[in-house]
Amino acid sequence: MCFCLYLATSSEPPLIPDQGYQQGTGKINTSRWRLEQGEKGKALRNKFTLPWVTNVGSDVGCGCGFRSNEAAIHAPGYDPAETQPNHAGLVAFLAEHCGKEPFVELYGCWDGDEAQEVQDRREIELAELAHEEFHFRMKGYCRVKMPSEQAAQ
């Protein structure tokens, strides 16, 4: 089972093909979801306020390369630095392609859990995604304030 990370934006972000398993590179990939089709699409539509929904994969292909399990923090030998390139890559992608938007939305869950209710809601700054202590929470929604919104205040 894989962790899935979904991004919702107000404008269409570029699609980046999956380059295969390249752990440690921070190369992310994106693919579009057709929210009007299928049960998974309908379930995702209810999670977001923004119209464009994109699946974001990490340098291992799926979302499993993102820090997504808070329980791992306490596991012996856990090193958040191993996933840091993916978080840095995600922040760079959002800054480059979504930087003029006031905010974007992220939702993470295990594949197949898209229809379950959101269990955690947070509002964060873009830079927080790259902090080594940041972890996506299962069935967790994040409203990410972009630097353009911060500058306008």
Tell the overall outline. globular
Sheet having the most strands: 6 strands, mixed
Structural category is alpha+beta
Strands across the major sheet, in which order?
A: 2-3-1-4-6-5
Helix percentage range? 10-25%
**How large is the radius of gyration?**
15 Å
Our estimate of the beta-strand percent is 15-25%
N-to-C span: 41 Å
SSE series: EEHEHEEEH
Number of domains: 1
Number of helices: 3
| Overall pLDDT score | 89
Spans of at least 5 consecutive residues with low confidence: none
Task: Give the strand tally.
Answer: 6
How are the SSEs ordered, and which strands pair?
Blueprint: E1 3-9, E2 29-32, H1 38-45, E3 52-57, H2 84-98, E4 103-110, E5 120-125, E6 140-145, H3 147-152
Parallel strand pairs: 5-6
Antiparallel strand pairs: 1-3, 1-4, 2-3, 4-6
Describe the structure.
There is one protein chain. This protein has 153 residues and is an alpha+beta fold. It has one domain (3-152). The chain has three helices and six strands. The protein is globular.
Keywords:
19% helix, alpha+beta, 153 residues, six-stranded mixed β-sheet, single chain
